What we know:
Blueprint: H1 2-11, H2 13-20, H3 26-36, H4 40-50
Helix pairs in contact: 2-3, 2-4, 3-4
Amino acid sequence: MEIAILGLLMMFLPTLIALVRSHHNTFAIFLTNLLLGWTIIGWLIALIWSTTATARRVSA
Length: 60
């Protein structure tokens, strides 16, 4: 049972990171993680996306 919970936490790690960082695309990261997270490439895309900048730049 603990292994299953640990596996789910690892699978949804990009979503958890996005939630903690208050990323403006958290729901899109969640969907990417849910639908493509079972592939290594989809999981890496969600992980990289969740660690990108959270604030939009203001142009002067």
